[in-house]
Specification:
Length: about 375
């Protein structure tokens, strides 16, 4: 196979995309490599971790067919080339000793390195992507990126380690970890499925959320062989959906939460930053409404240290004194800035005008005798749907 020339900027952009796949963590050495393929479709790069197949086309110019694997060290070396410089890849060696020669210019000086590589046939073959196709507007993948952070990272709750795509109620995306639940209206295919968090992380890349996408459902009698393929422009991700029944998420969405507090748009970034600065995952904040039109947030840790923040808000009704996990409240406010409440023991909802919302479980507030400002909170109540 002849030498392939690729701009260094293109390689760096591709590396940032493939880094989201985390294929370098795979224990099987061949999975750490990138597959470069040339042919009538131009030049394509691909990688897999067995559960996902990610590919991108980096050149549209037709060439002779060929393929080789780029080992991690060769890709690292290529990405150190000067901005705008060309990087040359030349496969060499025989079947028993394959090597890849990388030639580049760094700091104005040309250098060449040789890296051992593997036979491309050792990499699992590209999955088939024939099936029922649905067009997705950019808002769907952007909504996916907005709510995916609410999925569970607990491996023992496997079915919650992804986002539910469901055609219910006109189309929805749902994510929950049992203590919070995010939901977003979206254009989705007629087939319900659960997309793994790892795939959601890849699809949050700006190249996927910037344009129309095509989603293909690859059905199979064996649930383990079903796949979801999402293509946007030059990129395509094929993912294995999670197998199992998603819990009844609707039963934890409060039907009555008419006490409202609207956080001004210009104050929300500062409030979110303050909530995240509280640090520990179990940090709680108490929300008080002593003054009309003002929200007071109080955090006190086990050592007696306290922090307070006051934010002007637009109040409708009589919001209750309530406490939330600080990090969860910050995540919820990223999704919607209208806080809807009913009482101190019921879940709160942060809503957005577009229809997306996040339900967060409260933390029980206990006020020690003789005080009115100190708050002690227990763990958030768990959503019954995710139990």
């Amino acid at each position: 196979m002849s030498t392939i020339h690729i701009p260094s900027n293109t390689l760096r952009d591709a590396k940032r995309l493939f880094d989201r796949l985390k294929h370098l963590r795979c224990k099987l050495p061949v999975l750490n490599h990138l597959l470069l393929t040339t042919g009538q479709n131009g030049i394509e790069l691909a990688a897999t971790d067995l559960d996902h197949w990610l590919e991108t086309r980096i050149s549209d110019m037709p060439t002779d067919y060929g393929c080789f694997l780029i080992p991690p060290a060769a890709m690292e070396a290529a990405c150190r080339a000067d901005k705008g410089a060309q990087v040359s890849f030349t496969p060499c060696g025989g079947k028993r000793s394959r090597e890849l020669r990388v030639t580049l210019t760094s700091g104005g000086i040309q250098s060449t390195s040789v890296h051992p590589t593997l036979d491309p046939s050792e990499l699992p073959s590209r999955p088939h992507t024939t099936g029922i196709t649905t067009e997705l507007p950019p808002a769907t993948l952007q909504g996916l990126a907005d709510i995916a952070g609410c999925t569970s990272s607990d491996s023992s709750r496997h079915i919650l380690n992804g986002v539910l795509f469901t055609p219910e109620d006109g189309g929805r995306l749902v994510a929950t970890d049992g203590k919070r639940l995010a939901c977003c209206p979206a254009t989705v295919p007629p087939q319900s499925f659960i997309l793994p968090s790892a795939a959601c992380h890849i699809l949050a890349h700006p190249d996927f959320t910037a344009d129309m996408a095509m989603l293909t459902w690859i059905d199979h009698e064996d649930a383990e062989k079903r796949r979801v393929a999402i293509q946007c422009g030059r990129h395509q991700l094929v993912s294995k959906p999670l197998v199992g029944s998603y819990p009844n998420y609707k039963q934890v969405i409060p039907s009555f939460a008419n006490e409202l507090a609207v956080i001004p748009h210009d104050r929300k970034p500062g409030l979110i930053a303050w909530l995240r600065s509280l640090g520990k995952d179990q940090a709680s904040v108490r929300l008080d409404w002593h003054k009309r039109g003002q929200l007071t947030l109080t955090h006190r840790d086990a050592g007696g240290h306290s922090a307070t923040m006051q934010v002007p808000v637009e109040i409708h009704g009589n919001p209750p004194v309530i406490a939330f996990n600080a990090r969860y409240l910050a995540d919820a406010l990223e999704i919607g800035s209208t806080l809807c409440l009913s009482d101190e023991l019921s879940p709160g909802i942060c809503r957005h005008p577009t229809g997306r919302f996040c339900v967060i479980m409260p933390m029980r507030v206990t006020i020690p005798a003789g005080t009115n400002a100190t708050t002690t909170a227990t763990q958030p109540q768990s959503a019954r749907a995710a139990a």
